[in-house]
Write a structure and sequence with these properties.
4 helices, 124 residues, alpha+beta, elongated
Length: 124
């Protein structure tokens, strides 16, 4: 893959914009979190930096069909170990009980905890 160039038109003509160091992965993660349609229409982000036995998932989402979607962001090339990492995360998510998954996303979604919900007389 070639490099992309960014240019700005100044008074003297085109000027190449020099690359700046930014935390691209975290910014992209925030952009996708704010607008999940950047990845796929209809996604709902339900967790960010979700801890699993295999590691930390950048973003966890649910698609319109109710399927779990893992979003792992890398700023460089996709290497084999990255794919293995994503498969490991998916395996961890697939083996979690519904209650464990609910607990993982509860804080992110701003839902009350199990004990708090029970003290209000509600069952989930």
């Amino acid at each position: 893959m070639g490099q992309l160039g960014v240019w700005r038109i100044g008074e003297a003509g085109p000027e190449r914009v020099q690359p700046a160091a930014i935390d691209f992965e975290k910014r992209l993660e925030s952009w996708i979190e704010a607008d999940p349609d950047l990845v796929e229409t209809g996604l709902r982000i339900v967790g960010r930096q979700v801890q699993t036995e295999g590691g930390v998932v950048d973003l966890l989402a649910v698609d319109p069909q109710g399927r779990w979607i893992l979003i792992e962001i890398k700023r460089d090339r996709l290497y084999r170990d990255t794919l293995a990492q994503a498969l490991d995360y998916a395996s961890c998510i697939a083996t979690m009980s519904a209650e464990e998954l609910r607990d993982k996303v509860r804080d992110y979604l701003g839902e009350p905890g199990k004990d708090e919900g029970e003290t209000r007389g509600g069952n989930r």
